[in-house]
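$ run holo --ligand "manganese (II) ion" --emit tokens
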Amino acid sequence: MNNDYSDKNPALTALYVEHIEVLAARHDHALEQAGASHAVIFSGNPRIAFLDDYQMPFKPNPHFVNWAPLTQLPFSYIVYTPGEMPVLIYFQPHDYWHVVPGAPDGYWSSQFDIRIVHTLDEVAKHLPADREKCIVIGEISDASLTFGIERVNPTTAINILHYARGMKTQYELANMRLASYRGATGHVAAEAAFRDGLSEFEIHRAYCKAVSHTDAELPYGNIIGLNEHGAVLHYTDLDRQVPTELRSFLIDAGAQVHGYASDITRTHSFGDQRFQDLIDRMDSMEQEIVSQVQVGVDYRDLHIGTHKLLADVLVDAELAHGDPDTLLETGVTSAFFPHGLGHLLGIQVHDVGGFMENESGTTIDPPSGHPFLRLTRILQEDMVLTIEPGLYVIDMLLENLRGTSAENHVNWSTVDWLRPFGGIRIEDNVRVLANGRENLTRDALAKATE
Ligand code: GLY
Ligand code: MN
Ligand code: MN
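-- output --
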């Protein structure tokens, strides 16, 4: 695959045709089960700030992006009727305040019967006449946007589509490989900026420049933390000052291509060998967990297995002592690793359907004591998920161990040593195969550092 992120990338043309066939089959099934004949997928509308006329960055309906790589096309609709070419009602307003969407053109455009409209009133005539037989899929902030269709996001259809979205098509995988490579180039630039002694804010700018994304185009706000900031799980403050002493750097940053995301975390030591050794140990552990990913594995078991492996790391690093089961049961591993092992990835960074047991909407709870685990499914071929174990000094959580049976299992002086480094997280994006896996992140980082 070349590294052409544009919608003229010729490598995507044939894959996209197959993708549309898969989507059509999924929607045929969803419509049949919902007792409807047409799916009307609304792209969304920009939100306006309260008491203001300022538009928030537009976040499109992921169902719309699943059909077409049109992430910045508000007030547009796709109408899917089984057996027919999908209709794209392409909203191109007469607006001299903003740049309006250009003429439809890309690897995707030949797959649609495109109807360009300039006003919302024109949409109605392109919708199926029998509104009773339609369902709308999308966020509807104003009833007028449904043009008289009453069934909005029916659960039966939505469950079927969300369950299926767990499994990526070859087109989606190609985009996710591109997004991985794009993110990897940002990680290389960010590490260089860190080694040059730049601030979090400047490292962020180096990252955005390398991936050619504005902040709004990033799939999620970059987490760029120096030193202690690495322990704040969703740290997005971007300090403008360079700390007086540079010790560590945790970066959790992704990129997107045609609406598909990567979600990558790496941790770096500025020079301290003991901290580097701990990073290397976490990196080996992460790769051991990745090596267990394959069809049929229960992701909950991977999460619990990670806690046991982490217990060994904590013992080896002299952060704790005791056998793995005790460190798990007393809550020691959870205090150091308080988030889930990972999640499904796709159009959304935390992609839908992570708890679904089947397409009818039955869900699987996370294991007790692990409420933040976002993926509880049995792994199926072509799912893409993250594996992102962590180890942090979060005093709010560690202090909770005081006065419990866990307290004596923690080596508090080593915790004091680690605190100024914040923490460690290593996050890869992994595709599930029948007898193995594809590590999109490691492949991309290898290519980006060739
Ligand atoms: N970047 C958010 C996450 O790793 O889930
Ligand atoms: Mn992440
Ligand atoms: Mn993640």
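-- notes --
The chain has a mean pLDDT of 97.
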